[in-house]
Amino acid sequence: MKQQQQAIEFDFNVLSEGAVAETIARELKKIAENLVDPNVKNSTRKLNVAVGFKLTDDAKAVSVSAQVKSTLAPDEDKVDTFLIGRNGMGDVEMRPLRSSAPGQLMIDPESGQMLDDDGEPLPASTGKIEYIKK
């Protein structure tokens, strides 16, 4: 039995001499890199391949164009909290909040010093917390 020839022969691997298939592979690699990036939001990535078909002026052939585009997930928002206010001179100051709440004291894990909420050592402190051994 003779195999019937395909009525429409269309292959991305030969379209534009393989350039479309190469572009698809490149965009898929971008999507894969974006999927494993821990700094990126977990949202849907997309790969769009738009193929256009237009008859030539004499209507004896078709011009085929292709555009490949990926849509990646955006980076996660980077959010931090800053303390803002006026100092004793009336000037505005702004510093990052180092503890988890304004006014909360914290201990520097490296030095053992008691620090205020913006990471500065307490002025009237010995600077170190002594651990009591029993």
Give the overall pLDDT as a whole number: 83
Counting DSSP H or I runs of 4 or more residues, the number of helices is 1
The main sheet orders its strands as: 1-2
Question: Could you tell me the radius of gyration in angstroms?
Answer: 31 Å
* Count of DSSP strands: 6
List low-confidence stretches. none
Q: What can be said about the biggest beta sheet?
A: 2 strands, antiparallel
Helix content: 10-25%
- Alpha-beta content class: alpha+beta
Distance between the termini: 95 Å
Order of helices and strands: HEEEEEE
Oligomer: single chain
How large is the share of residues in beta strands? 25-35%
**Silhouette:** elongated
Q: Could you walk me through the main structural features you see in this protein, from its secondary elements to its overall organization?
A:
With 134 residues, the protein is an alpha+beta fold. It has one helix and six strands. The strands form three sheets. Strands 1-2 form a two-stranded antiparallel ribbon. Strand 3 (82-86) and strand 4 (92-96) form a beta hairpin. The longest helix is centred in the N-terminal third of the chain and has 18 residues, at 19-36. The model has no long low-confidence stretch (mean pLDDT 83).
